[in-house]
Amino acid sequence: GASSRARGEKPDALAALQAANEELRAKLTDIQIELQQEKSKVSKLEREKNQEVKQIKEHEQHKSTVVVTELKVKLHEEKMKELQAVREALLRQHESELLRVIKIKDNEIQRLQTLLNAVRDGAPDKVKTVLLTEAKEEAKKGFEVEKIKMQQEISELKGAKKQVEEALTMVIQADKIKAAEIRSVYHLHQEEISRIKRECEREIRRL
Description:
The protein is mainly α.
């Protein structure tokens, strides 16, 4: 009777074992399916994060381009203002030189008019004396005028050179300042992009 019961229990135990095995296989299959679903979710999140990082990079690069363009336009406008100031200064110098020449010509006309009056009113000897004296005065005056003119031209050229050098120095300094600002803005944007990238990578790893 005991051996008969033992033989009857073996098929039952085997059936129970097979049932447990099938249940474990079913659970394993469910776990594998769930794992695959989680992997798909992670892959989707990674794709979304990568897309988001790409969009952020493109946005930051666009912002950097806009800032750099604005700085270039501003620098160009400042250069144009400085060149316009130099141009106006040179124009004023030209006008001053023109007035000086007109004054010299007026004096010449007045001198010739005086000489003409002396020729009309005087005798031949008097005219000769007047012409000789006038020639001497003219030679002396011409020398003095040329001397003063050369001194003025030298002084004006020195002044114009100094103004051009000062304007050039200002433009160079402005270029350096703007270049430094552009580099600073560029580095700040690069650091911000790197920071956003690191945060996104950390978020992806955490997911």
